[in-house]
Specification:
Layout: H1 9-32, H2 38-57
């Protein structure tokens, strides 16, 4: 930060926080409509991991 004293770092941080909050709010909207449970997501993730591992073994 000392390398660029002309930059107002509090403004940069504030904009980054606002951007992240907007993304999180959009994710909340999408997830609120989702019927996928946490267990379903874990099972799906496990299946994907196994298939990726199998694919990488054959390379």
């Amino acid at each position: 930060m000392e390398l660029y004293p002309e930059i107002n770092w509090s403004v940069v941080a504030r904009k980054a926080f606002i951007r992240k909050i907007k993304i999180l709010r959009e994710m909340d909207k999408i997830l609120a409509k989702s019927e996928l449970t946490e267990d379903d997501a874990l099972e799906l993730g496990s299946k994907v991991s196994k298939k990726v591992a199998k694919r990488l073994e054959s390379v």
